[in-house]
Amino acid sequence: MKQSITLNKVSKFVGLGFISTLKSLFTGKLDKEDFKDFLRKTVVPLTSIVLFIGLWHVGAKTLYNIEADYKINKAMEEQGQAAADEMAACIASGDISCQPNTLPSPAQVWDSYKTLLADHKAISADKAAFKEKTAALNAKRIAEGKAPITYTGRPSFVDQIITSLKTVFAGFLLALFIAVPIGIVIGLSKTLRSSFNWLIQIFKPVSPVVWLLLVFMIVKTMTKDSNSDSAFIISFISVGLCAMWATLVNTAMGVSTVDKDYINVAKVLKLGPIQKVFKVILPSSLPLIFTGLRITLSVAWMVLIAIELLAQNPGLGLFVWEEFQNGANDSNSKIIVAMFVIGIIGFLLDRIMLTIQNMVSFNKNAQ
Amino acid sequence: MSTDTLDYKVVGDRTDNGLFPPSRVMLDLKNLKKVYPTPKGDYVVLEDLNLQIMKEEFVTIIGHSGCGKTTMLSMIAGLNNITDGYISVLGKHVKGPGPDRGVIFQAPSLMPWMTSLQNVLLGVNQVFPHATRAQRNDIAKYYLQKVGLEDAFHKKASELSQGMQQRVGIARAFAIKPKVLLLDEPFGMLDSLTRGELQDILIEIWNKEKITAVMITHDVDEAIFLADRVVMMTSGPSAKIGDVLEVDFERPRTRKTVLEHEDYYKYRKHLIDFLEH
User: Fold this and answer.
1) Non-local CB neighbours of A292 within 8 Å, separated by 6+ positions
2) Residue B2 region, left (φ>0) first, then alpha (ψ -120 to 50), else beta?
3) Domains annotated on chain A, with CATH
4) What distance in Å separates the CA atoms of residue B86 and residue B84, rounded to the nearest whole number?
5) Mean pLDDT, chain B, as a whole number?
6) If you average pLDDT over residues A166-179, what whole number do you get?
C-alpha cells in the first residue's frame, strides 16, 4: 500500500499543523469542529502576537518618556529653563542628535529591518558591480597564477546571517562526528562508560566562553603560519565542543539501554558484533541519538552568538556586539532585529531537526 | 507431589527406568538447578529438575506464575546461566544461545524499524550464509506466507498489530530451521480470538516441520490442544516437575475434534486439579 503525501500530512509532520486549517478555511470546507480548531490554532496565536506587540509598544513608549523627562530635567538643572525648552523641542522634532537612548518601539525595529534589507541590496549590487569590473582582470591573474582580487567591503546583515549559519553548521558537524562515535563506543562498554563518566560530567557544564578561550589557545598557535580564517575555525570548534555533550550523553544512553528483547533476539540468532551494532543497537538507539542532535543544534545556535562576539567571527554575534558598541541612533533597534532573526532561525533549525528525527525514528512520537 | 510418583502412562518404547532410549531424545534436562543470589541469601528457583523431550515431540509446560518456567526455558535457550546440572541438545551440552534453538518470545520482539521480511531475513541470513540472496528471500517469504502474511512482506513491524507481529515472530523462528523451538507464552498478550488463530497457524506449520517444541503457557486448553505431553511444574521455590500428562489425541488435530473428544475433559480436570492443588 502506497502512502499518499498530502499537505495535511506534510504540515503535521513538520509541526506546522495550522497550515492545513488555513487551507480548509480558504477552500470553504469548514465545519464546527474545524472552526474551533481554527480559532485555537490560528486566531489565538495571532491575538497573542498582537497583544505582545501592543505591550511592547506601550512599554517602549513609557521608557522613552522616562528617558526624555530625565534629559529635560538634566538640561534644566545644568543649564536652566531655556536649555530645557530647547531639549524638549529637539526631542519632539525627532532630531537624531538628542533622541533618548532606550528600548526601541516595534515601529522603529520594523524600520531598521527595512534599512538592513536596503543596505543588503546596496552591498549586493556593489559586490556584483565589483565582480563585473574585476572579471577580466581576475581571469588574467588566474591565468598568470596569481590570486584573484576579492571583494573586501563591509558584509551586509544577510552575509552575516550566512556566516553564522555556516559556523553553526560546521560546529554541528564537528559535534556529530565527535560525539556520535564516542557515544556509541562508550555506550557499548560499561567499563569505558564508567571511566569516561567523570570527564563528561565535568566538561558538560563548562561555559561557552571558557571553551572559546581553550580553543583559542590551541588554534592560535596551530594557525600561526597559515592564512586560514582563524576566527571562523575558533568559533566553529568552540561551538562544536560546547554543543556536543547532549549528543554524547544521549548516544551513550541510547546504545546502553537497548531493549533487552532485541539483545536476546540478537543472541539467539548469534549475530556477530558488527551485525549486532549496525542491525540492532544503532537503529534502536537512533531516536535518542537524534534527540541529542536536536538539542546539540539548538545549543550550538544559542552559544554561537556569544562565541562569535568574542572570537570576532563576522556573524550575527559580532553584528550585535558592533551595533551595541556603535551606539548610533538605530543601533538598539538593529539589535532587536537581530534578536528576532536569531530566534526565528533557531526555531526553523529545530523544526528541520524534528522533521529529520521523525523520518528516521520508528516511533513517531517526538514533539 | 514428588517426582517418584509420576502417574502418567508409561509408553512401550521407554527403558526400564522410565527414560527414553538415547537415540530418541532431543532435549535432556538433568538435575537442573538454578540459584539467584539475593541480598538475603540464595534463592533456589529450580532444583533437581529432570525432563527428557523426544524428537518431534510437542511439550507444553504449565505451572503457576513465578514458578520458574521462563527461567527454565531461557536456560534451554542459553540466555540464562545454569547453576548446576546440565541441558543437552542431541547429546551436546548447551553453553550459550544459538540458532539450533529458535525462540518465540512473549513479546513479539521484532525490530520495529525493519519490515517483516527483513526481520525474518535477519535470522535466515545468519543461518544460511552460503545461500544466494534469492534463496534466502525465498525461505523468508515461504514462512511469511505460511503464517498468512503474504501481503505484508514490506510492512514495517511497527505498523503491524500485535497478532501480526507474533506471526512474524513464528515465521522468524521456523525459518532458521532450529532443532528445538522454544515458545515462552507466545500468545499470552493476545486476545482470545487472535490466540486461537495463531494456535491454528502454529500447529499447522508444526505438523509440517515436526520441530521439537517446548512451549510455556498459562492456558489449560491451549496446553492440551497443542501438546503430546503436558508437563506440570510445582510452585517455587525449588520448583521441579510435578506431573506429566500424555495427551493421546490423533494428529493432525482440529480444535473441533479435540473439544469433542471423550478424554478431553478428563485431561482438563487432571491439569486443573494439579494447578489448584
Assistant:
1) A179, A183, A246, A247, A248, A249, A250, A251, A254
2) beta
3) 31-96 (no CATH), 104-150 (no CATH), 155-360 (1.10.3720.10)
4) 7
5) 87
6) 94
Evaluate whether B147 touches B170 at the Cβ level (below 8 Å).
yes
Residue B172 covered by a domain: no
Answer whether residue A175 shows pLDDT above 90.
yes
Grid cell 592564512 is found at: A227
Q: Find which of A11-15, A18-22, A202-206 is predicted with most confidence, using mean pLDDT.
A: A202-206
d(CA A41, CA B183): 50
> What H or E segment, with its residue span, contains residue B180?
strand B180-184
Nearest to A304 by CA among A262, A365, A242: A242
**A359 touches B at CB < 8 Å:** no
Cβ(A263)–Cβ(B79) under 8 Å? no
Q: Does A268 contact B98 at a Cβ distance shorter than 8 Å?
A: yes
User: How confident is the model over A168-196, as a mean pLDDT?
Assistant: 92
Q: What is the mean pLDDT of residues A248-271?
A: 90
Q: Name the minimum distance, in Å, from the CA of B123 to any CA of chain A.
A: 6
Res A367: pLDDT: 40
| B212: CB partners within 8 A, 6+ apart | B26, B27, B53, B54, B55, B56, B57, B58, B179, B180, B181
Q: How far is CA A135 from CA A123, A140, A156, A246, B133, in A?
A: 18, 9, 22, 47, 57
Q: How far apart are CA B181 and CA B177, in angstroms?
A: 9
In this structure, is residue B118 part of a structural domain? Answer: no
Task: Report if residue B17 sits inside a domain.
Answer: yes
Cβ neighbours, 10 Å, residue B219: 17
Domain-embedded: residue B120: no
Place of cell 532573526: A341
A269 touches chain B (CB under 8 A): yes
| Chain A neighbors of B121, CB-CB under 8 A | none
Residue B262 lies in domain: 3-100+178-276
* Residues belonging to chain B with any Cβ–Cβ distance to chain A shorter than 8 Å: 77-79, 96-99, 101-103, 105, 107, 109, 111-114, 122-123, 126-127, 156, 158, 176
Domain count for chain B: 1
Task: Identify from B73, B80, B105, B126 which residue to disrupt to test chain A contact, counting A C-beta atoms within 10 A and taking the largest count.
Answer: B126
